[in-house]
């Protein structure tokens, strides 16, 4: 691997590590809310926050120890965000996925049981491709997806 490739892997590793810290902090907050007998009904995220929403759902689905036993959240809301392959820890652990060409490692379509309201511009989002948004939305068994364009909002299943 050349110098530029090594620098890219370091950046990916550091980004992944920062997201793991943030994920652990978020799990701690959810546990504290649950233990105080005031669990959160849901979690809302926009852009990178929406990536965190999907991380919660995927890790909860994968029975990650940080999320096992949590009754909350019972739903998530994703505003303009999708699964980011550099932020999702594969079930085997050990760092970020080595093959970043894959969209995600984990469940297939309609396998994630956590309810999700998914809002995104599937047509002209400047960051996420239509394919990534659709594939992320389709992970959820119980979902509502709103396709937001500059002129209308559509609600397909």
Automatic annotation (TrEMBL):
Gene3D superfamilies: alpha/beta hydrolase. InterPro entries: AB_hydrolase_fold, FSH-like_dom. It holds the Pfam family FSH1. Residues 28-87 form the Serine hydrolase domain. This is Ovarian cancer-associated gene 2 protein-like. It comes from Durusdinium trenchii.
């Amino acid at each position: 691997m050349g110098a530029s490739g090594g620098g890219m892997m370091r950046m990916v590793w550091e980004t992944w590590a920062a997201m793991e810290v943030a994920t652990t902090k978020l799990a701690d907050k959810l546990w504290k809310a649950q233990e105080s007998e005031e669990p959160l009904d849901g979690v809302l995220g926009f852009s990178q926050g929406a990536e965190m929403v999907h991380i919660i759902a995927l890790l909860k689905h994968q029975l990650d120890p940080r999320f096992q036993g949590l009754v909350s959240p019972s739903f998530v809301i994703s505003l303009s965000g999708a699964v980011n392959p550099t932020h999702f820890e594969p079930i085997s652990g050990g760092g970020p996925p080595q093959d970043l060409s894959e969209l995600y490692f984990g469940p297939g379509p309609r396998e994630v049981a956590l309810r999700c309201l998914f809002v995104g511009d599937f047509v002209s989002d400047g960051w996420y491709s239509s394919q990534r948004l659709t594939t992320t939305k389709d992970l959820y068994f119980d979902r509502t997806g709103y396709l937001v364009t500059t002129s209308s909002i559509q609600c397909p299943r």
